[in-house]
C-alpha cells in the first residue's frame, strides 16, 4: 500500500485504534479505524480529492465534517442491488470491507474529461440552460436532455430491486429533543428528570454533537469540573438508565409537520460490515411530541474568494472535528483564513498536534482580544485586515495570495504563502431548518448577521447554537432551562440545572458574504455554492439581468438548490446580494427551508408498503376454491375478483365465450360478494331512502327487491344497486363494488348534516355476507334440493322477490335477482360459511354442467341485456335519463337528492348523449371501448364527434359483436348508420336499442 | 404460510357481534338486557357475565350512538334474544356483524410495540388503559382495538383484511426478533 497513515496522530481521538478496518475507494485499498468515517479515513492517508464538481467538474476535496458536506458525495456499494449513491463521505461510517466510489467523473477522479467545462466556464454563465436549450424544441428530448444528464448527473442508482427491509414506527412523547450536542443533552436531562417521556435523536453515530470535537488534552473544555468527554459519558449513561428516555443515535430528524408531528430516519445497519439478513436497514419514525426542543447546532460558513474550492481547503470546524474525533491531521502546513474567533481555537489545537500553522489571516481589523492573545502566546502569526486574492494548486492547494485592500480599492502588501491546507471560517449559521419547516418566523439578528428563531408556530423551543447562543456554558444552561420548561409545558415535571464551564472559546459570529476584491467585477471561481458550482459572478449576473427577489436569484443561479439545500451557501449568497444592492439581509429576503433536512431513501419512506404487503389484498369467500380451479384474477380496488376460469390452454376470449354460453344454456356460478352492502335500519328507513334514491321505496313491500339509482345533488348518476326490504324498518341496500365506501359516506353525511331528525341508522354489512350468484335456466333445479324452508317456484318466489331459509344447515337470505337476464338467484350467507356454501352449490351443480364464471363473462352477459355499469356507461356527467333509466325515477315524489338539478333546462335540452346500442356491419369486428362516434363519414380533422363507445364485446350467444355507446340524441338515431373513426379507417355502425338478447325478457321471469 | 404464534397472535374464540345504534333511550334499554349499563364515555368497554359460565360479554363504545357487542358464540342466541326483546319498543338499529369481522388476540412481551409500528395511536398504558377501545388504522387497514390487559389486545378487522393484518404483524414481529 502506497498510502501510509502520514496524517494520523500517534494517539488521541475517539477512534478505536485496536480495530483496523480495510476499505477501498475507487478501487484503491486503504485502512482506517473503528470510529472513522470514510472521509476521516481517507484524510488519514492524505487523500483530499474526493469528488468532481457538478457543473465544471473541478477537483474537489472535503469541505466539512458533517451533514453539510457539499463536495464529497460518494456511492457505497455492497452489491448490485445495494448501491447507495450521493452519500456524504463525512456521514459514511467505516466498516471492514467497505467499497466506495467517487461520482460525476469519467474516466477517473484524477483525470476527468468533463473538466473541460472548467476551461469553458465563461460559456456557462448563470441561466445557461435557460438561454441555450430553448430551441429547436425537438432537440431537447433527443439531444440536450440526454447529454446534460450524462454530463451533469450525480450518482447512479442501483440496477436491481432493493432486497432490504425497512421498518416504520409511530411514537409519542412529552418532549422530543432534536440534536444531542451540549444543548440537547442538557435539555434531555432536564426534561426527563421528572419522569416525562423524552425522545432524544441525533444524526451522528455517537451522542455528543460539538462535545465530541473537544480535545481530551488540557486545551479542551471542562464541564462542572470534569473534562467534557467525561461529562458527556456520564450524561449519556444517566439518560440511558432512565426508562422514560429513548435515545436514537444515527437518526436524522428531517421533517417537521403540523401539530408537532416530526419525521425521523434511523439508520440501523448501514454501519455494519455484515448486517443480519432479517434486520431492517432503516426505520422511519413518526413522532408526535407534546413539546419539541430543537438543539440542532450551527454550521460554519466557508469564505468566498477566488479559488476557494481546491482540495485541501476546508472549514476550520472540519479540521477540528477530524483532529479531535478521528485523530486525523488535515495537512502539514495550514493557513487559516477567518472572520470568526472560534477558528483561532482550531489553529491552537492543530499547532499543539504538531501541524505547522503558517499564518492566521483575519479578514477583520481585529479578533477578540483573548483569542488574539492566546494565538500570539502560542507563537502563531496573525495578519489582520486582509483579503485573499487567489490560490494555487490543481488537485491540492499549494499556496495562497493575500493582500490588504484599502477602501479606495487600492491593493497593497500582496504576499504569497506556500501551504498544503487552507482552513476557512466565515462564522456560523444557526441550523434553523426544522424551525423554519414548522412555520416558525425567523428573526434577523443584526449583531450576529444571522437568522435566528423568532416566533414559534408550534409548541417548540430552540436552544443552543441553533438559536444563536454563543459559548458552552450559555448553551448548557439554555438547554437545561428549555428542557425543563418543555417538560412543564408538556404536563410533566422538569428539573433545572446550571453548569460551570472552563474553556478557551471564541465567538461563532462572522460576516456572511463575499470577501472584498479589487476591481469592479466580482470574481469568477469564487464559489458560493460548492455543490451546484455557483460563483459570486453568477449571483452578480443574475442581479444585473434584473432578478430582484432572492427566490428568483436562487432559481436562476441554482444557488442552494443542490441536495445540501445550501447549508453552507445560502447565507453567503444573501450577504452578497444584500451588500451589492446596499440593503439589509432581511430586505434581501430568505429562501424557504423544506424537508428533508438531508436526503431520505425511498425504502425508508415506503417502509412496509412493498411486495405482498403493498396494499391489503382482499380475497372473496371463493378465493381458495377459485385458485384451485385455475382462476385468473382481476384487481377491483383492493379486491381480488375472479376474471375468468380458463380451461385447457384457453385464452380469455375462448374462456369468456364458453362461460357466457354455459350461463345461457344451463347454469353458471359467480362470486358477487364484493358488492357493497349497507343495512339501513330504523323507523324512518323508507323515508330516508326515498329522499336519497330516485326511486320510491315506500311502496316496496317487505320481501321484495327494487333496482335503485342514486344521483348526486347535480343530478348525475352516482351509484346503483338492488335494494331489498327485509322488514318494515330494515332495508338491505347493495351498491357497486367500488361505490361501497363512498355511498355509505354520502348516506352518513346526509343523515348527520341534513336529516339528523330521522330515526335511521346505517351499518356496513359488505363483509357480513358472502353472495353466491347462481344464474341460468337450470338455477332453480340446482338449488331446489339444497334449500329448505322455502318454495322456489316462480309464483312463490318471482323475479325481484326474496326469502329466508337454509342452504343445507347454513342460514340464508335468498334474493331472486339477475344481472344476466337469466333466471337467477343470489344466495346471501354469513361470510364465514361462504366457502362451504359455494362448494355445496358447486357439487349440486355438477349434474347440470355448472360453469364458474368471472367478471369478464358477467360484463358480456349484462351488456347483452343492456344493463349499465355505473362508471362504465356513466362517467359522472350522465343523468338517469341519459343512461336510459328514467323509468326508475318516481315522478310522484316531492323531492330526492338531484331532483332539482334534473329539472334544469340544460338537463332537458336536446343534444345530450344517450345510451344506445351499436352493431357493426362486420359481425366479427369488436369496437374499441372509448372509441369516438361521428355522424358523417370522411370528416376532416378536427371531426365533429357526437359520442363514444362505453362497452364492447363479442357475444357468443348472438354470434356477433355488440356495443353500448353514449351518443348525442342517440335514441332518435336508432336505425341510422354512424361512423367510428379508427387509425385503420372508419367503421360504419348501426344504432340499435340497448337490449340485444331476449328483448321480451321472458327468460328473466322463467 | 404465516406463523401467527411468532407474532404473539392467536385467533379470538368464535364470537357473535352486533352493532347497536340509537339514542340514549335505546342504550339504556339495551344495558338492562346486556347485564350492565352500556359504556357512555368515549372508548370505554363495559363487560357483563354471559349466559355461559366463566365467560363475559363486552360492550364497546365506538361512537356517540354506536356500541358493539362481542360475546362467545355460545352466548349469541341468549344475548341477541335479550337485546331484541328489550329494544322492541325503542327506535334503534341492531345489526349482526358476527361474520363481518375477524378477531385476533395479541399477546406477548410488548404487543403495543408491534402495533405502534403502523398504528399511529399512543398505546402507552396511561393514554390507552386496560379496557379502552377505539376504531383506528393498522397501516392501510381499519381496525378496532381493545386493550384487554396491560400486555394484551383484542384486534378486530374486516374479514377480507385479516390476511393483510396478520401478514403485516408477522413482518413486524420478525423485526422484533432480529
How would you describe what is shown here?
The complex is a heterodimer of chains A (1006) and B (178). Chain A has 1006 residues and is of the alpha+beta class. Among the domains of chain A are: 16-129, Ubiquitin-like (UB roll), CATH 3.10.20; 169-298 and 430-502, FAD/NAD(P)-binding domain (3-Layer(bba) Sandwich); 304-426, FAD/NAD(P)-binding domain, CATH 3.50.50.60; 519-586, Orthogonal Bundle (Arc Repressor Mutant, subunit A), CATH 1.10.10.1100; 675-765 and 879-907, Alpha-Beta Plaits (2-Layer Sandwich). In chain A, the strands form 13 sheets. In chain A, strands 8, 9, 12, 13, 14, 15 and 28 form a 7-stranded mixed β-sheet that branches. Chain A has a 7-stranded mixed β-sheet with strand order 42-43-44-45-41-35-46. Chain A has a 6-stranded antiparallel β-sheet with strand order 48-49-50-47-52-51. In chain A, helix 18 (652-665) crosses helix 23. Chain A starts with 15 loop residues before the first strand and ends in a 14-residue tail after the last strand. The relative contact order of chain A is 0.07. The mean pLDDT of chain A is 94. Chain B is an alpha+beta fold and 178 residues long. Chain B is 25% helix and 35% strand. In chain B, the strands form 2 sheets. Chain B has a 5-stranded antiparallel β-sheet with strand order 1-7-10-9-8. In chain B, strands 3-4-5-2-6 form a 5-stranded antiparallel β-sheet, with helices on one face. In chain B, helix 1 packs antiparallel against helix 2. Chain B is elongated, with a radius of gyration of 16 Å. The two termini of chain B are 19 Å apart. Chains A and B meet through strand 8, strand 32 and strand 40 of A and strand 6 and helix 4 of B.
Amino acid at each position: 500500500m502506497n498510502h501510509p497513515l502520514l496524517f494520523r496522530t500517534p494517539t488521541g481521538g475517539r477512534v478505536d485504534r485496536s480495530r483496523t478496518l480495510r476499505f477501498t475507494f475507487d478501487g484503491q485499498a486503504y485502512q482506517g479505524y473503528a470510529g472513522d468515517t470514510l472521509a476521516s479515513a481517507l484524510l488519514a492517508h492524505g487523500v483530499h480529492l474526493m469528488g468532481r464538481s457538478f457543473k465544471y467538474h473541478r477537483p474537489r476535496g472535503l469541505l466539512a465534517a458533517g451533514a453539510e458536506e457539499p463536495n464529497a458525495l460518494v456511492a457505497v456499494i455492497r452489491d448490485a442491488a445495494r448501491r447507495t449513491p450521493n452519500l456524504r463521505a463525512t456521514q459514511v461510517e467505516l466498516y471492514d470491507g467497505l467499497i466506495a466510489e467517487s461520482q460525476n467523473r469519467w474516466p477517473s477522479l484524477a483525470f476527468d474529461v468533463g473538466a473541460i467545462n472548467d476551461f469553458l466556464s465563461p460559456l456557462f454563465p448563470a441561466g445557461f440552460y435557460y438561454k441555450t436549450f430553448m430551441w429547436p424544441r425537438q432537440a431537447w428530448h433527443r439531444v440536450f436532455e440526454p447529454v446534460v444528464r450524462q454530463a451533469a448527473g450525480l450518482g447512479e442508482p442501483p440496477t436491481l430491486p432493493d432486497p432490504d427491509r425497512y421498518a416504520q414506527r409511530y411514537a409519542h412523547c412529552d418532549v422530543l429533543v432534536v440534536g444531542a450536542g451540549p444543548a440537547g443533552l442538557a435539555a434531555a436531562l432536564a426534561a426527563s428528570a421528572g419522569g416525562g417521556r423524552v425522545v432524544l435523536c441525533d444524526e451522528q453515530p455517537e451522542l455528543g454533537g460539538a462535545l465530541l470535537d473537544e480535545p481530551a488534552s488540557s486545551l479542551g473544555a471542562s464541564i462542572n469540573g470534569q473534562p467534557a468527554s467525561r461529562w458527556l459519558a456520564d450524561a449519556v449513561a444517566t439518560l440511558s438508565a432512565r426508562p422514560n428516555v429513548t435515545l436514537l443515535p444515527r437518526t436524522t430528524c428531517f421533517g417537521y409537520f403540523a401539530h408537532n408531528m416530526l419525521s425521523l430516519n434511523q439508520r440501523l445497519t448501514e454501519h455494519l460490515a455484515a448486517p443480519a439478513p432479517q434486520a431492517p436497514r432503516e426505520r422511519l419514525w413518526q413522532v408526535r411530541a407534546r413539546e419539541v426542543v430543537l438543539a440542532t447546532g450551527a454550521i460554519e460558513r466557508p469564505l468566498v474568494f477566488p479559488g476557494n474550492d481546491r482540495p485541501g481547503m476546508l472549514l476550520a470546524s472540519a479540521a477540528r472535528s477530524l483532529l479531535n474525533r478521528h485523530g486525523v491531521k488535515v495537512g502539514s502546513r495550514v493557513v487559516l483564513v477567518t472572520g470568526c474567533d472560534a477558528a483561532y481555537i482550531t489553529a491552537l489545537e492543530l499547532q499543539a498536534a504538531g501541524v505547522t500553522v503558517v499564518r492566521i489571516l483575519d479578514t477583520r481589523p481585529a479578533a477578540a482580544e483573548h483569542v488574539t492573545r492566546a494565538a500570539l502566546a502560542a507563537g502563531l502569526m496573525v495578519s489582520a485586515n486582509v483579503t485573499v486574492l487567489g490560490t494555487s494548486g490543481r488537485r491540492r492547494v499549494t499556496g495562497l495570495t493575500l493582500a490588504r485592500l484599502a477602501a479606495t480599492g487600492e491593493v497593497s502588501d500582496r504576499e504569497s504563502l506556500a501551504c498544503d491546507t487552507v482552513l476557512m471560517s466565515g462564522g456560523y449559521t444557526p441550523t434553523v431548518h426544522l424551525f423554519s419547516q414548522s412555520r416558525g418566523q425567523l428573526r434577523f439578528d443584526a449583531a450576529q448577521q444571522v437568522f435566528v428563531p423568532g416566533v414559534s408556530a408550534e409548541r417548540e423551543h430552540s436552544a443552543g447554537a441553533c438559536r444563536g447562543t454563543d459559548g458552552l456554558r450559555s448553551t448548557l444552561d439554555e438547554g437545561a432551562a428549555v428542557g425543563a420548561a418543555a417538560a412543564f409545558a408538556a404536563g410533566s415535571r422538569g428539573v433545572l440545572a446550571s453548569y460551570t464551564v472552563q474553556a478557551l472559546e471564541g465567538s461563532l459570529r462572522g460576516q456572511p458574504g463575499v470577501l472584498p476584491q479589487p476591481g469592479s467585477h466580482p470574481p469568477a471561481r469564487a464559489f458560493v455554492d460548492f455543490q451546484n458550482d455557483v460563483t459570486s459572478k453568477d449571483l452578480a449576473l443574475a442581479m444585473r439581468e434584473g432578478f430582484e427577489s432572492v427566490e428568483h436569484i436562487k432559481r436562476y443561479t441554482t444557488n442552494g438548490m443542490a441536495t445540501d439545500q445550501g447549508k453552507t451557501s445560502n447565507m453567503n449568497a444573501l450577504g452578497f446580494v444584500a451588500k451589492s444592492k446596499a440593503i439589509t439581509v432581511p430586505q434581501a429576503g430568505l429562501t424557504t427551508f423544506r424537508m428533508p433536512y438531508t436526503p431520505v431513501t425511498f425504502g425508508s419512506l415506503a417502509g412496509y408498503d412493498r411486495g405482498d404487503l403493498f396494499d391489503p389484498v382482499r380475497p372473496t369467500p371463493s378465493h381458495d376454491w377459485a385458485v384451485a380451479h385455475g382462476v385468473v384474477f382481476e384487481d377491483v380496488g383492493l379486491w381480488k375478483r375472479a376474471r375468468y376460469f380458463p380451461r385447457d390452454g384457453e385464452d380469455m376470449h375462448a374462456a369468456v365465450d364458453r362461460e357466457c354460453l354455459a350461463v345461457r344454456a344451463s347454469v353458471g356460478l359467480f362470486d358477487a360478494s364484493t358488492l357493497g352492502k349497507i343495512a339501513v335500519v330504523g323507523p324512518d328507513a323508507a323515508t330516508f331512502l326515498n329522499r336519497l334514491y330516485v326511486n320510491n321505496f315506500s311502496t316496496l313491500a317487505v320481501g321484495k327487491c327494487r333496482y335503485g339509482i342514486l344521483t348526486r345533488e347535480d343530478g348525475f348518476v352516482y351509484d346503483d344497486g338492488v335494494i331489498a326490504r327485509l322488514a318494515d324498518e330494515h332495508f338491505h341496500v347493495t351498491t357497486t363494488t367500488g361505490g361501497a365506501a363512498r355511498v355509505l359516506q354520502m348516506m352518513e353525511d346526509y343523515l348527520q348534516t341534513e336529516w339528523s331528525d330521522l330515526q335511521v341508522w346505517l351499518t356496513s354489512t359488505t363483509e357480513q355476507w358472502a353472495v353466491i350468484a347462481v344464474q341460468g335456466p337450470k338455477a332453480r333445479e340446482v338449488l331446489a334440493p339444497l334449500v329448505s324452508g322455502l318454495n322456489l317456484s316462480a309464483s312463490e318466489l318471482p323475479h325481484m322477490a326474496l326469502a329466508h331459509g337454509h342452504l343445507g344447515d347454513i342460514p340464508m337470505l335468498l334474493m331472486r335477482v339477475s344481472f344476466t337476464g337469466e333466471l337467477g338467484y343470489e344466495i346471501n350467507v354469513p361470510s364465514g360459511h361462504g366457502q362451504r356454501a359455494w362448494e355445496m352449490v358447486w357439487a349440486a351443480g355438477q349434474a347440470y354442467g355448472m360453469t364458474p364464471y368471472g367478471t369478464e363473462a358477467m360484463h358480456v352477459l349484462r351488456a347483452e341485456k343492456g344493463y349499465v355499469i355505473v362508471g362504465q356507461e356513466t362517467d359522472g356527467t350522465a343523468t338517469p335519463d341519459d343512461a336510459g333509466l328514467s323509468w326508475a325515477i318516481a315522478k310522484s315524489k316531492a323531492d330526492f337528492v338531484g331532483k332539482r338539478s334534473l329539472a334544469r333546462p340544460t338537463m332537458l335540452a336536446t343534444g345530450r348523449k344517450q345510451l344506445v346500442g351499436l352493431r357493426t356491419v362486420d359481425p366479427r369486428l369488436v369496437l374499441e371501448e372509448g372509441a369516438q362516434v361521428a355522424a358523417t363519414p370522411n370528416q376532416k380533422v378536427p371531426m365533429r364527434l357526437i359520442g363514444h363507445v362505453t362497452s364492447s364485446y363479442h357475444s357468443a350467444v348472438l354470434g356477433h359483436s355488440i356495443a353500448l355507446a353514449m351518443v348525442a340524441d342517440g335514441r332518435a338515431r336508432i336505425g341510422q348508420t354512424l361512423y367510428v373513426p379508427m387509425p385503420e379507417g372508419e367503421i360504419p355502425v348501426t344504432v340499435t336499442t340497448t337490449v340485444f338478447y331476449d328483448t321480451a325478457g321472458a327468460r328473466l321471469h322463467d | 404460510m404465516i406463523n401467527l404464534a411468532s407474532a404473539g397472535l392467536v385467533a379470538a374464540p368464535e364470537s357473535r357481534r352486533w352493532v347497536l345504534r340509537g339514542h340514549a333511550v335505546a342504550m339504556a334499554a339495551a344495558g338492562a338486557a346486556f347485564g350492565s349499563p352500556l359504556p357512555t364515555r368515549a372508548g370505554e368497554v363495559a363487560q357483563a357475565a354471559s349466559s355461559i359460565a366463566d365467560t363475559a360479554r363486552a360492550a364497546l363504545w365506538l361512537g356517540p350512538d354506536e356500541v358493539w357487542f362481542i360475546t362467545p358464540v355460545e352466548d349469541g342466541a341468549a344475548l341477541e334474544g335479550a337485546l331484541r326483546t328489550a329494544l322492541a319498543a325503542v327506535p334503534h338499529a341492531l345489526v349482526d356483524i358476527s361474520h363481518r369481522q375477524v378477531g385476533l388476540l395479541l399477546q406477548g412481551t410488548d404487543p403495543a410495540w408491534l402495533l405502534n409500528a403502523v398504528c399511529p395511536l399512543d398505546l402507552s398504558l396511561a393514554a390507552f388503559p386496560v379496557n379502552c377501545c377505539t376504531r383506528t388504522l393498522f397501516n392501510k387497514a381499519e381496525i378496532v382495538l381493545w386493550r384487554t390487559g396491560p400486555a394484551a389486545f383484542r384486534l378486530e378487522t374486516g374479514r377480507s383484511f385479516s390476511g393483510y393484518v396478520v401478514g403485516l404483524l408477522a413482518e413486524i414481529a420478525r423485526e422484533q426478533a432480529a
